[in-house]
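Lab notebook, design round three. We kept the backbone fixed and only want residue identities now. Task for the bench partner: fill in a sequence for the structure below.
Input C-alpha coordinates:
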Protein backbone atom coordinates (compact mmCIF):
# COMPACT_ATOMS: atom_id res chain seq x y z
CA UNK A 1 0.00 0.00 0.00
CA UNK A 2 1.27 3.48 -0.92
CA UNK A 3 2.56 5.37 2.10
CA UNK A 4 0.79 8.71 2.57
CA UNK A 5 1.92 11.85 4.37
CA UNK A 6 -0.88 11.32 6.86
CA UNK A 7 0.63 7.95 7.78
CA UNK A 8 3.95 9.38 8.99
CA UNK A 9 2.94 12.92 10.01
CA UNK A 10 4.79 16.23 9.74
CA UNK A 11 7.89 15.29 11.74
CA UNK A 12 8.18 11.91 10.09
CA UNK A 13 8.14 13.68 6.73
CA UNK A 14 10.74 16.21 7.90
CA UNK A 15 12.95 13.28 8.90
CA UNK A 16 12.55 11.68 5.47
CA UNK A 17 13.38 14.96 3.73
CA UNK A 18 16.40 15.57 5.95
CA UNK A 19 17.73 12.07 5.25
CA UNK A 20 17.21 12.54 1.51
CA UNK A 21 19.09 15.85 1.54
CA UNK A 22 21.94 14.33 3.55
CA UNK A 23 22.29 11.53 0.99
CA UNK A 24 21.68 13.42 -2.25
CA UNK A 25 22.50 17.06 -1.50
CA UNK A 26 25.69 19.07 -1.28
CA UNK A 27 27.44 19.99 1.97
CA UNK A 28 28.61 23.58 2.39
CA UNK A 29 31.36 24.54 4.82
CA UNK A 30 29.82 28.01 5.17
CA UNK A 31 26.55 26.63 6.55
CA UNK A 32 26.95 26.75 10.32
CA UNK A 33 23.43 25.48 11.06
CA UNK A 34 21.06 23.73 8.67
CA UNK A 35 17.76 21.88 9.05
CA UNK A 36 16.72 21.06 12.61
CA UNK A 37 16.61 24.34 14.55
CA UNK A 38 14.48 27.49 14.61
CA UNK A 39 16.59 29.07 11.86
CA UNK A 40 19.46 28.18 9.59
CA UNK A 41 22.68 30.18 9.61
CA UNK A 42 25.56 30.66 7.21
CA UNK A 43 28.70 32.75 6.81
CA UNK A 44 28.52 35.22 3.88
CA UNK A 45 31.50 35.20 1.55
CA UNK A 46 33.68 38.32 1.96
CA UNK A 47 33.55 40.63 -1.06
CA UNK A 48 30.18 39.35 -2.26
CA UNK A 49 26.66 40.78 -2.10
CA UNK A 50 23.84 38.49 -0.98
CA UNK A 51 20.94 38.18 -3.44
CA UNK A 52 17.51 37.06 -2.19
CA UNK A 53 14.49 36.05 -4.28
CA UNK A 54 11.31 34.10 -3.63
CA UNK A 55 8.67 32.60 -5.87
CA UNK A 56 5.54 30.55 -5.35
CA UNK A 57 3.83 27.92 -7.47
CA UNK A 58 0.19 27.12 -6.77
CA UNK A 59 -1.51 24.01 -8.09
CA UNK A 60 -4.00 24.85 -10.81
CA UNK A 61 -2.64 28.36 -11.20
CA UNK A 62 0.99 27.78 -12.16
CA UNK A 63 1.01 24.09 -13.02
CA UNK A 64 -1.36 21.24 -13.86
CA UNK A 65 -0.58 18.38 -11.49
CA UNK A 66 -2.05 15.76 -13.82
CA UNK A 67 0.38 16.74 -16.58
CA UNK A 68 3.70 16.98 -14.70
CA UNK A 69 5.62 14.51 -12.56
CA UNK A 70 6.68 15.47 -9.00
CA UNK A 71 10.35 15.33 -10.08
CA UNK A 72 9.79 17.69 -13.01
CA UNK A 73 7.67 19.95 -10.82
CA UNK A 74 10.55 20.22 -8.36
CA UNK A 75 12.93 21.08 -11.17
CA UNK A 76 10.53 23.67 -12.56
CA UNK A 77 9.94 25.36 -9.22
CA UNK A 78 13.65 25.66 -8.47
CA UNK A 79 14.50 26.80 -12.01
CA UNK A 80 12.14 29.77 -11.65
CA UNK A 81 14.16 31.01 -8.68
CA UNK A 82 17.59 30.17 -10.08
CA UNK A 83 16.69 32.20 -13.17
CA UNK A 84 16.07 35.30 -11.04
CA UNK A 85 19.48 34.96 -9.38
CA UNK A 86 21.13 34.48 -12.76
CA UNK A 87 19.40 37.54 -14.20
CA UNK A 88 21.21 39.62 -11.59
CA UNK A 89 24.53 38.09 -12.60
CA UNK A 90 24.76 35.89 -9.51
CA UNK A 91 24.74 32.22 -8.62
CA UNK A 92 22.49 30.37 -6.15
CA UNK A 93 23.92 29.19 -2.83
CA UNK A 94 21.12 28.44 -0.32
CA UNK A 95 17.42 27.57 -0.59
CA UNK A 96 14.52 27.57 1.87
CA UNK A 97 11.56 25.46 0.74
CA UNK A 98 8.02 25.79 2.12
CA UNK A 99 5.34 23.36 0.99
CA UNK A 100 1.59 23.22 1.39
CA UNK A 101 0.65 19.53 1.12
CA UNK A 102 -2.43 17.36 1.30
CA UNK A 103 -2.39 14.56 3.86
CA UNK A 104 -3.31 11.99 1.21
CA UNK A 105 -0.28 12.84 -0.94
CA UNK A 106 2.19 9.97 -1.34
CA UNK A 107 5.44 10.34 0.63
CA UNK A 108 7.31 9.11 -2.44
CA UNK A 109 5.95 12.05 -4.46
CA UNK A 110 7.31 14.52 -1.89
CA UNK A 111 10.69 12.79 -2.05
CA UNK A 112 10.62 13.03 -5.86
CA UNK A 113 9.84 16.73 -5.55
CA UNK A 114 12.99 17.21 -3.47
CA UNK A 115 15.03 15.15 -5.90
CA UNK A 116 13.88 17.62 -8.56
CA UNK A 117 15.03 20.53 -6.38
CA UNK A 118 18.45 18.91 -5.95
CA UNK A 119 18.78 18.19 -9.67
CA UNK A 120 18.82 21.96 -10.25
CA UNK A 121 20.78 22.98 -7.14
CA UNK A 122 23.57 20.40 -7.07
CA UNK A 123 25.34 21.65 -10.24
CA UNK A 124 25.88 24.95 -8.39
CA UNK A 125 26.90 23.27 -5.11
CA UNK A 126 23.85 25.03 -3.67
CA UNK A 127 22.17 23.72 -0.50
CA UNK A 128 18.67 23.45 0.92
CA UNK A 129 19.12 24.75 4.47
CA UNK A 130 15.54 24.85 5.77
CA UNK A 131 11.90 25.58 5.06
CA UNK A 132 8.43 24.82 6.33
CA UNK A 133 5.67 22.26 5.90
CA UNK A 134 1.97 22.88 6.31
CA UNK A 135 -1.26 21.16 5.41
CA UNK A 136 -3.15 22.78 2.54
CA UNK A 137 -6.83 22.46 1.93
CA UNK A 138 -7.72 22.88 -1.74
CA UNK A 139 -4.42 22.29 -3.48
CA UNK A 140 -0.69 22.03 -3.11
CA UNK A 141 1.69 24.97 -3.22
CA UNK A 142 5.47 25.40 -3.34
CA UNK A 143 7.18 28.51 -1.99
CA UNK A 144 10.94 28.82 -2.40
CA UNK A 145 13.25 31.49 -1.04
CA UNK A 146 16.59 31.31 -2.81
CA UNK A 147 19.72 33.13 -1.69
CA UNK A 148 22.51 33.80 -4.13
CA UNK A 149 25.70 35.78 -4.27
CA UNK A 150 27.36 38.11 -6.74
CA UNK A 151 30.77 39.72 -6.58
CA UNK A 152 30.38 43.17 -5.02
CA UNK A 153 29.73 45.77 -7.71
CA UNK A 154 29.19 43.17 -10.47
CA UNK A 155 25.40 42.74 -10.19
CA UNK A 156 23.35 43.73 -13.24
CA UNK A 157 20.08 45.57 -12.63
CA UNK A 158 17.06 46.50 -14.73
CA UNK A 159 17.82 50.19 -14.40
CA UNK A 160 21.05 50.55 -16.40
CA UNK A 161 19.84 50.65 -20.02
CA UNK A 162 20.68 53.84 -21.93
CA UNK A 163 19.55 55.26 -25.31
CA UNK A 164 21.59 53.71 -28.10
CA UNK A 165 22.06 50.38 -26.30
CA UNK A 166 21.41 47.21 -28.28
CA UNK A 167 18.71 44.79 -27.07
CA UNK A 168 19.74 41.12 -27.11
CA UNK A 169 17.69 38.06 -26.22
CA UNK A 170 18.76 34.46 -25.70
CA UNK A 171 16.94 31.43 -27.05
CA UNK A 172 13.39 31.49 -28.36
CA UNK A 173 10.95 33.23 -26.00
CA UNK A 174 7.34 32.23 -26.60
CA UNK A 175 7.96 28.51 -26.82
CA UNK A 176 6.60 27.85 -23.33
CA UNK A 177 3.38 29.71 -24.13
CA UNK A 178 3.02 27.67 -27.30
CA UNK A 179 3.60 24.48 -25.32
CA UNK A 180 0.93 25.39 -22.78
CA UNK A 181 -1.61 26.06 -25.52
CA UNK A 182 -0.84 22.72 -27.18
CA UNK A 183 -1.25 20.99 -23.82
CA UNK A 184 -4.60 22.65 -23.12
CA UNK A 185 -5.79 21.92 -26.68
CA UNK A 186 -4.99 18.21 -26.51
CA UNK A 187 -4.87 17.47 -22.78
CA UNK A 188 -6.43 14.01 -23.11
CA UNK A 189 -3.68 12.82 -25.46
CA UNK A 190 -0.74 11.47 -23.43
CA UNK A 191 1.57 11.85 -26.44
CA UNK A 192 1.27 15.63 -26.23
CA UNK A 193 3.60 15.56 -23.20
CA UNK A 194 6.45 14.57 -25.53
CA UNK A 195 6.00 17.56 -27.82
CA UNK A 196 9.18 19.72 -27.71
CA UNK A 197 7.25 22.87 -26.75
CA UNK A 198 5.28 21.08 -24.02
CA UNK A 199 8.59 19.89 -22.59
CA UNK A 200 9.83 23.50 -22.65
CA UNK A 201 6.72 24.48 -20.68
CA UNK A 202 6.95 21.63 -18.15
CA UNK A 203 10.71 21.68 -17.55
CA UNK A 204 12.09 25.07 -18.59
CA UNK A 205 15.80 25.80 -18.58
CA UNK A 206 17.45 28.77 -16.90
CA UNK A 207 20.38 30.86 -18.17
CA UNK A 208 21.97 31.49 -14.77
CA UNK A 209 25.51 30.54 -15.78
CA UNK A 210 25.26 32.79 -18.80
CA UNK A 211 23.89 35.66 -16.70
CA UNK A 212 26.84 35.31 -14.34
CA UNK A 213 29.26 35.28 -17.29
CA UNK A 214 27.65 38.40 -18.77
CA UNK A 215 27.96 40.18 -15.43
CA UNK A 216 31.64 39.32 -15.17
CA UNK A 217 32.36 41.14 -18.45
CA UNK A 218 31.04 44.41 -17.02
CA UNK A 219 29.46 45.12 -20.44
CA UNK A 220 25.79 44.31 -19.76
CA UNK A 221 24.01 47.57 -18.90
CA UNK A 222 20.70 45.92 -17.91
CA UNK A 223 19.40 42.37 -17.68
CA UNK A 224 16.18 40.53 -16.84
CA UNK A 225 14.77 37.05 -17.37
CA UNK A 226 11.66 36.46 -19.46
CA UNK A 227 9.54 34.93 -16.72
CA UNK A 228 6.66 37.29 -17.57
CA UNK A 229 7.17 37.21 -21.34
CA UNK A 230 9.66 39.07 -23.53
CA UNK A 231 7.64 42.22 -24.09
CA UNK A 232 6.50 42.54 -20.49
CA UNK A 233 10.00 42.08 -19.13
CA UNK A 234 11.54 44.48 -21.65
CA UNK A 235 8.88 46.87 -20.41
CA UNK A 236 10.24 46.45 -16.87
CA UNK A 237 13.70 47.43 -18.11
CA UNK A 238 12.26 50.46 -19.88
CA UNK A 239 10.34 51.61 -16.80
CA UNK A 240 13.26 51.15 -14.40
CA UNK A 241 15.75 52.73 -16.83
CA UNK A 242 13.33 55.51 -17.90
CA UNK A 243 13.82 54.75 -21.59
CA UNK A 244 11.91 53.32 -24.55
CA UNK A 245 12.66 50.67 -27.17
CA UNK A 246 12.36 49.87 -30.85
CA UNK A 247 12.11 46.24 -31.99
CA UNK A 248 12.77 44.85 -35.47
CA UNK A 249 10.15 42.27 -36.42
CA UNK A 250 12.40 40.56 -38.98
CA UNK A 251 15.02 39.91 -36.27
CA UNK A 252 12.65 38.31 -33.75
CA UNK A 253 13.81 34.69 -33.22
CA UNK A 254 11.02 32.16 -33.78
CA UNK A 255 11.89 28.47 -33.71
CA UNK A 256 10.66 25.95 -36.27
CA UNK A 257 8.69 24.14 -33.54
CA UNK A 258 6.91 27.35 -32.57
CA UNK A 259 6.06 28.19 -36.18
CA UNK A 260 4.49 24.76 -36.64
CA UNK A 261 2.59 25.05 -33.35
CA UNK A 262 1.30 28.51 -34.27
CA UNK A 263 0.01 27.13 -37.56
CA UNK A 264 -1.84 24.32 -35.74
CA UNK A 265 -3.30 26.79 -33.25
CA UNK A 266 -4.24 29.38 -35.89
CA UNK A 267 -2.02 32.00 -34.24
CA UNK A 268 0.68 34.41 -35.35
CA UNK A 269 4.03 33.04 -34.03
CA UNK A 270 5.17 36.58 -33.20
CA UNK A 271 2.27 36.87 -30.77
CA UNK A 272 3.80 34.08 -28.69
CA UNK A 273 7.16 35.85 -28.61
CA UNK A 274 5.63 39.18 -27.59
CA UNK A 275 3.00 37.78 -25.21
CA UNK A 276 3.04 36.18 -21.76
CA UNK A 277 5.39 33.18 -21.63
CA UNK A 278 7.53 31.77 -18.84
CA UNK A 279 10.60 30.72 -20.81
CA UNK A 280 13.36 32.05 -18.47
CA UNK A 281 15.55 33.35 -21.26
CA UNK A 282 17.59 36.54 -20.77
CA UNK A 283 16.99 40.02 -22.16
CA UNK A 284 20.29 41.94 -22.10
CA UNK A 285 21.22 45.47 -23.14
CA UNK A 286 24.70 46.69 -23.95
CA UNK A 287 26.53 49.31 -25.98
CA UNK A 288 26.85 48.40 -29.70
CA UNK A 289 30.63 47.90 -29.50
CA UNK A 290 30.15 45.18 -26.86
CA UNK A 291 27.73 42.97 -28.80
CA UNK A 292 30.51 40.79 -30.25
CA UNK A 293 31.96 40.18 -26.78
CA UNK A 294 28.63 39.08 -25.33
CA UNK A 295 28.01 36.84 -28.33
CA UNK A 296 31.40 35.25 -27.71
CA UNK A 297 30.53 34.73 -24.05
CA UNK A 298 27.22 33.10 -25.03
CA UNK A 299 29.02 30.79 -27.45
CA UNK A 300 31.37 29.78 -24.65
CA UNK A 301 28.43 28.87 -22.39
CA UNK A 302 27.14 26.09 -24.60
CA UNK A 303 26.47 27.78 -27.93
CA UNK A 304 23.39 29.60 -26.60
CA UNK A 305 21.55 31.27 -29.50
CA UNK A 306 21.32 35.03 -29.08
CA UNK A 307 19.53 37.51 -31.32
CA UNK A 308 19.87 41.27 -31.63
CA UNK A 309 16.23 42.32 -31.69
CA UNK A 310 16.22 46.08 -31.16
CA UNK A 311 17.66 49.16 -29.54
CA UNK A 312 16.96 51.37 -26.56
CA UNK A 313 15.56 54.84 -27.31
CA UNK A 314 15.21 58.07 -25.39
CA UNK A 315 11.50 58.31 -26.24
CA UNK A 316 9.33 56.28 -23.89
CA UNK A 317 7.17 53.44 -25.17
CA UNK A 318 7.96 50.33 -27.21
CA UNK A 319 7.57 50.32 -31.01
CA UNK A 320 7.69 47.39 -33.43
CA UNK A 321 9.35 48.27 -36.76
CA UNK A 322 7.76 46.23 -39.57
CA UNK A 323 9.70 44.91 -42.58
CA UNK A 324 7.82 47.17 -45.01
CA UNK A 325 8.74 50.29 -43.09
CA UNK A 326 5.59 50.54 -40.95
CA UNK A 327 5.54 51.03 -37.20
CA UNK A 328 3.26 49.60 -34.53
CA UNK A 329 3.08 50.69 -30.92
CA UNK A 330 3.17 47.81 -28.44
CA UNK A 331 1.66 47.59 -24.99
CA UNK A 332 4.24 45.91 -22.72
CA UNK A 333 1.75 43.97 -20.62
CA UNK A 334 3.15 41.09 -18.59
CA UNK A 335 1.88 38.27 -16.39
CA UNK A 336 -0.31 39.60 -13.59
CA UNK A 337 -1.34 37.19 -10.84
CA UNK A 338 -4.33 39.34 -9.90
CA UNK A 339 -5.69 40.09 -13.35
CA UNK A 340 -9.28 38.92 -13.57
CA UNK A 341 -10.01 36.83 -16.66
CA UNK A 342 -13.16 35.25 -17.99
CA UNK A 343 -12.14 32.01 -16.25
CA UNK A 344 -11.95 33.60 -12.80
CA UNK A 345 -14.78 33.49 -10.32
CA UNK A 346 -15.33 36.68 -8.35
CA UNK A 347 -17.48 37.38 -5.37
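Proposed sequence:
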Amino acid sequence: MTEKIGDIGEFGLIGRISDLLDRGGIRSERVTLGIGDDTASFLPRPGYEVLVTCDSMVEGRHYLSEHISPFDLGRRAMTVNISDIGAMGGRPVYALVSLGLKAEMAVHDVEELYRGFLAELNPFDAVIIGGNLTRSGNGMFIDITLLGEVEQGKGVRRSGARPGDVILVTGYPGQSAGGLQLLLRDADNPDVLDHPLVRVYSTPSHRARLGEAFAQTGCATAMIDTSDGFLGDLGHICVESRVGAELFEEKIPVSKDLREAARLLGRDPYDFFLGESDDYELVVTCQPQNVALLRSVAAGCGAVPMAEVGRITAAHGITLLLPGGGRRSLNPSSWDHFRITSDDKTT
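Keep this in mind before ordering anything: The chain has ten helices and 13 strands.
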